[in-house]
Amino acid sequence: MPIDPQTLGRAVKQAQYRHHRALDTQLAAIGTSLAQWDALRAIARSPGASARVLAEETFQTQQAFGTLATRMQARGLIERTPGHGRAIEHRLTPHGQHILRAANDVADKVLTASFAALSEHERTVLLELLHRIGDRPDAVIEGTRERAGE
Cα angle at 137 between 133 and 139, to 5 degrees? Predict the structure, then answer.
């Protein structure tokens, strides 16, 4: 019997929602949030990146990322400096690096516990399948256009 795509989509969303809730709860205990942790990770991966690039990396609009970055700068987690043209470059401060390390430890514990029900092979297959879906954003957009044009 074929699996209803809405049921499959909801199952993915439910797993993501549970991860987000658990991470937000545990990250709050160390004084940060899921959105801040994600931004810290993106900045650490791409020091000097612009808000546009970091917004894409963190699945946010540029305006939302700018608001988040302003709050993080006020907390001493990041520094923002003028870049090329009108771009603003982002870098972690030593305090931001410290919070990122602590948040990574929290995330490792939460996600290890979450995926503990899966064998190593099942985790590998899940990752491969999610990459196969995630690496084809054009297929999702095309499918949406096709349905919208019906």
Answer: 85
